Amino acid sequence: MTEETEKTESRKTYSFAIDVQHASRFTAIRKKQRRAMADWAHELSHNSKGKITRTQARLEARRRRSELWPTLDEYVERAVRQRLAEEDLAGPWEPPTTAEEEAATLSGRGVSKNYPGFLITRAYDLPPSLIRELRTAAIRVSEEPLEELEAEGLLYYSLDYTEQERAKRDELVEKVFSAPRIVRQALERYGPWPPDAGPPSSAFLA
After folding, report:
1. I want to staple 33 with a disulfide (CB 3.0 to 4.6 A). Which of 4, 57, 69, 71 is the partner?
2. What is the pTM (predicted TM-score) of this model?
């Protein structure tokens, strides 16, 4: 897909569980941006001495939004693209088969350690091509540890595991990357906030 095609690609809404503190920061950013856009439009109209109406100024602010005040969807897209460009997820990967995509939706295939923080589901409009890339990376990176977990009978958590089995399961689980976990890591590493001020996330479990 060419860069121009990506720019014009229709977006679709996808939901992910993200850290509640990330969600809170996004809400604060959105409120701040709305106020900044309104102030910018007011200044543009006021300084034009009547040449630019308030409506025209607001339209200009909207046209420049991506440049000056990225939407939350754009923040998420940028972060995910940067995470997918890292060596462990960059590929190139063989596209998943229909059977593999179906298997990835089965219970237990998104296995991971207990998340250290609190999660909340949020929806973002993203390019379908990016979601395909995200899901492909998640499937390919996770297929070997998932196969080993299943072969060892460790795919599903059990209180009956021995200490050695729990240790082995934890070791393999750390190598499993579901699409939501990748998104959380992306926001932790490349979100619009200082990384040392971030809440607990799957980034610290990698």
Report:
1. 69
2. 0.81
CA distance 40 to 55: 12
pLDDT tens for 16-66 read 999 898 899 999 999 999 999 999 999 999 999 889 999 999 999 989 888
The CB density around residue 125, as the number of other CB atoms within 10 Å, is: 15
Q: How far apart are the C-alpha atoms of 184 and 200, rounded to whole Å?
A: 10
Q: Is the peptide bond before 92 cis (omega within 30 degrees of 0)?
A: yes
CA 182 remoteness from chain centre: 6
Which DSSP string corresponds to 112-144? -PPPSS-EEEEEEEE-HHHHHHHHHHHHHHHHH
Are the C-beta atoms of residues 142 and 43 closer than 8 Å to each other? no
136 C-beta neighbours (distance < 10 Å), count: 21
Q: Is 18 exposed, middle or buried (0-12, 13-18, 19+ CB in 10 A)?
A: buried
Mean pLDDT for the chain overall: 85
The H or E element containing residue 18 is strand 12-19
Look up residue 3 and give its two tokens. Answer: 């860069």
| Contact between 97 and 103 (Cβ < 8 Å) | no
Please give the Cα distance from 75 to 67 (Å, whole number): 12
